[in-house]
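[step 3/7] fold_predict: job queued, chain A
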Amino acid sequence: MGRNAVFGASFTVCWLALSACGSNHYVQRGADLYGEGRFVEADEVFERSEPRVARAPLGQRAAYAAYRGATFVALGDLAHAHHWLSMASEIERTQPGTLRTEEKAFLDTAWRALTNRLPQTPPPATSAVASSSQAPSPSVQSVPPTAPQPLAQ
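[step 4/7] structure written:
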């Protein structure tokens, strides 16, 4: 719970910094709602703005994608969050400097929040079987699905 509070505080600080800089008009209303914790309303504003943003300059599209992704993180829609955060990151990767410093910091914070919300998966077993309950049953024949099948005669 402590880590979530730290990330929430980081999100708030980044949001305040972006708001103070006067984010573009395509993003500003959704960003304001996001900063107020009104995530459903922010999502609605972003959804309605999407057709206009598709024709906007690259910097506006990247900032929009970062905020839209962060909104999806807050709403718990992790698949859509990943999509939008990836889009913002890809724009910045292919055109470095597209996002302002504050926007890049906000995007990084959104990625950390998404990562913290993803279910933890155990690392794959690379050597010995960890427990006897995971050992394959001796009565089951293990044949890889791509292994050639014997010909019927």
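[step 5/7] annotate
Residues 2-20 form the longest helix (19 residues).
Residues 25-117 form a domain with the Serine Threonine Protein Phosphatase 5, Tetratricopeptide repeat fold (CATH 1.25.40).
exit 0
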